[in-house]
Amino acid sequence: MKNRLMLALDLPDREKAEAMASELAGDIGWFKIGLRLFVAAGPELVRSVLQTHKVFLDLKFHDIPNTVAEAVASAGALGVQMTNIHAAGGPDMMRAAADAARSFPHMKLIAVTVLTSDPMPAVEAKIEAVRRAEMAREAGLHGVVCSVHEAAAIKRACGHDFLTVTPGIRWGGQSANDQQRIADPAFAIAQGADYLVVGRPILQAVDPRAAAREAVAMMQSANLAQTKA
Ligand code: C5P
Question: How far apart, in Å, are the Cα atoms of 72 and each of 92, 114, 188?
């Protein structure tokens, strides 16, 4: 299960990111490098993390098709195993990005459907997320970023192999922070999420390693229950 847990390394600099990555090295399969850290520490840090772990480069590209396709190719050349674009960029942009990603078979390209922080009512968010996921699948992408609450509907619409990567994970009364559509690790697995993205609940925990292990334990018990059912 730890290979389905992605830690969002939302930290200010390379030193803090490497310290956190090495503290959690044995407990987490993927590190997600997003805007804050990439702007501060760049491709060099990505290469360093790639020596030991898989990397999801979460830069959410959203621009004209040619620019996004070239950015996706740069991510592929960097060697990351996953990167993403905004589905709101539309079908032409997604097709150009998917074409570029084909040259890098080690890398999954996924689309952000509706941000888990978006205050859109849940019913509307689900309809919009499924619509954007179908568009992403038709454009040739491997999957989407969505909330746990949309994962099962997206799997039904787009097929079991279409990846769902779910942020907005919280458990045990943790603060939702700026997230709107949250769920705990067990529910995420039960809904068929392929990867769980967790940031502040681990980064800001008194004991980040214990928090990561707690998340993995909840994922394992949900997976076991699913296997038995
Ligand atoms: O700290 P928290 O667990 O809320 O972190 C969630 C991470 O997932 C952040 O890095 C955020 O940028 C990212 N993310 C998200 N919602 C999306 C896509 C990515 O929260 N739709």
Answer: 14, 20, 28
Do the beta carbons of residue 113 and residue 132 sit within 8 Å? yes
Residue whose CA lies nearest to ligand 1 atom number 19: 167
Using a 6 Å cutoff on CB, does residue 200 contact ligand 1? yes
Q: Does 60 qualify as catalytic in the annotation?
A: yes
> Contact 165/197 with Cβ under 8 angstroms?
yes
Confidence of residue 187 (pLDDT cuts 50, 70, 90): very high
Q: Are 99 and 126 in contact (CB under 8 A)?
A: no
pLDDT digits (tens, 9 = 90+) for 14-66: 999 999 999 999 999 999 999 999 999 999 999 999 999 999 999 999 999 99
Cα–Cα distance measured from residue 213 to residue 229, given in angstroms and rounded to the nearest whole number: 24
Asked whether 138 and 95 are in contact (CB, 8 A), the reply is: no
Give strand pairing partners of 86: 112
Determine whether the shortest distance from the Cβ of 116 to ligand 1 is under 6 A: yes
CB of residue 185 inside a 6 A radius of ligand 1: no
pTM of structure: 0.96
Domains located in the chain, CATH noted = 2-228 (3.20.20.70)
Atom of ligand 1 nearest to the CA of 58: 19
Q: How far apart are CA 63 and CA 85, in angstroms?
A: 9
Catalytic residue, from 60, 108, 155, 228: name it.
60
